[in-house]
Q: What sequence folds into this?
């Protein structure tokens, strides 16, 4: 049973009783559904759109954006930007279509799983009413998992919702035509990633960030390097920009904003991307009818076991207000699975050293604390800051023609514990996983410094980085080797 409007559904029964009902086809929910089905549970997977089988990541998030970033970085310079973008968009659509089908089949081929396409709302704590057109199905479940994700947020800026040229990231990904002049509203991960990618395809990009700088969670020196890289790639960055209105005129959108000094300014673009955050998708779920509480932003309130105010109802992924990462949603499923089939010991408090990655070019990745956060802890610190171009023992970056960027490490001076590492460099999204694994298992800075890594690789930058730690009281490293914390290799 795959579509509520199918004759097989409406004639067989208007009610379905299962052990587990999952609302939303995201990473945590679909993995839990498949695992519980293999354990013999009767499972209903409810997804409101057949274009979202598999969840946000493969359809409108990680996979399509990273596919476009890859093609932006590796496309032929002999092909005009609009044509390169069209080809990349078509390839990306084929990829997401393939993965969507595989995700659907992953559940639909399991004998005890029923995939239902329709919109679900709670009627009571154990009952979901699923509708599709004129058809209705009541699903009763002993356990329910809410996995509905998050939606792009549009703040109440005059003209923002009314403009025909304002798009969300989801809407921009659905287009095969590249914007010629793109105005990006926002200074976070989504804003920077789309700005970098579209500039690489040849669009003229202006990024308006409300704060004094982009990427406000990162250290000043890292942001300065990222800003330089983006600017060199053709992105015009205007910080301290408060958007006051959007108006369509003469085939373009005119974005009005005030600059850092409070003066009125405008910028024009044929497309305006509103990358101003995402809000948990809970509207229309009827959570009140089930006695399930939400917070001020609409996120489902959960405890450390991901239980809602109804102990048999769980919320996993972006909808529970936690970090909006696919891999965190995957770990959410492990917590719920342990609670349903194991000893129930796993909780969100077990998570340590969860890395993040921003896919600008080159990518920015971090795990643990920034230098500013570590300084605020008051503990004695050792800090290393190394420009990639100055790391003579790491030729991989030059081999791939991208020695841009910077790496930082923050270490507890007394225990040699790694507190945080930031990498803005080629393959940072891969290399950071080695650091995260080390941090989770108590590997010290000295041990990473003296490890044996393949050559030439970006991972061997850890030899250089941790060999250049110095007390935090010293001036910030300008790229010179600085005071050594141990042996460094030579090329």
A:
């Amino acid at each position: 049973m795959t579509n509520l409007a199918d004759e097989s559904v409406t004639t067989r029964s208007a009610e379905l009783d299962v052990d587990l009902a999952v609302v939303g086809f995201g990473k945590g929910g679909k993995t839990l559904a498949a695992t519980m089905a293999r354990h013999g549970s009767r499972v209903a997977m409810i997804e409101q759109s057949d274009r979202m089988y598999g969840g946000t990541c493969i359809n409108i998030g990680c996979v399509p954006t990273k596919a476009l970033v890859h093609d932006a970085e590796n496309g032929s310079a002999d092909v005009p930007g609009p044509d390169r973008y069209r080809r990349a968009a078509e390839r990306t659509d084929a990829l997401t279509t393939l993965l969507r089908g595989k995700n659907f089949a992953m559940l639909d081929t399991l004998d005890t799983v029923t995939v239902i396409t329709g919109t679900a709302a709670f009627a009571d704590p154990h009952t979901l009413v699923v509708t599709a057109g004129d058809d209705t199905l009541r699903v009763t479940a002993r356990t329910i998992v809410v996995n509905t994700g998050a939606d792009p947020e549009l703040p109440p800026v005059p003209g923002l919702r009314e403009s025909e040229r304002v798009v969300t990231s989801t809407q921009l990904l659905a287009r095969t035509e590249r914007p010629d002049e793109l105005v990006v509203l926002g200074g976070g991960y989504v804003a920077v990633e789309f700005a970098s990618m579209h500039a690489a395809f040849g669009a003229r990009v202006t990024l308006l960030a409300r704060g004094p700088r982009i990427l406000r969670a990162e250290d000043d020196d890292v942001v300065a390097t990222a800003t330089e890289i983006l600017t060199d790639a053709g992105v015009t960055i205007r910080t301290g920009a408060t958007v006051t209105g959007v108006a369509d005129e003469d085939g373009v959108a005119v974005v009005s904003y005030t600059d850092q000094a409070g003066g009125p300014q405008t910028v024009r673009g044929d497309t305006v991307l509103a990358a101003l955050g995402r809000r948990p998708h809970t509207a229309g779920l009827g959570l009140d009818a089930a006695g399930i509480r939400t917070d001020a932003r609409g996120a489902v309130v959960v405890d450390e076991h991901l239980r809602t105010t109804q102990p048999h109802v769980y919320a996993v992924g972006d909808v529970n207000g936690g970090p909006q990462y696919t891999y965190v949603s995957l770990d959410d499923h492990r917590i719920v699975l342990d609670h349903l089939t194991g000893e129930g010991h796993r909780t969100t408090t077990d998570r340590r050293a969860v890395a993040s990655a921003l896919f600008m070019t080159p990518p920015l990745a971090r795990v643990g604390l920034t230098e500013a956060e570590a300084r605020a802890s008051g503990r004695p610190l050792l800090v290393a800051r190394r420009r990639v171009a100055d790391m003579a023992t790491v030729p991989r970056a030059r081999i791939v023609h991208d020695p841009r960027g910077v790496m930082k490490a923050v270490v507890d001076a007394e225990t040699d514990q790694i507190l945080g590492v930031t990498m803005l460099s080629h393959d940072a999204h891969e290399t950071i996983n080695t650091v995260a694994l080390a941090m989770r298992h108590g590997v010290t800075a000295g041990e990473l410094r003296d490890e044996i890594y393949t050559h030439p690789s970006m991972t061997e930058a850890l030899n250089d980085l941790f060999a250049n730690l110095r007390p935090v009281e010293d001036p910030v490293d300008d790229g010179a080797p600085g005071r050594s914390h141990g042996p460094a290799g030579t090329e």
In short: The first helix runs from residue 7 to 12. DSSP finds 15 helices and 23 strands in the chain. Residues 7-151+279-350 form a domain with the FAD/NAD(P)-binding domain fold (CATH 3.50.50.60).
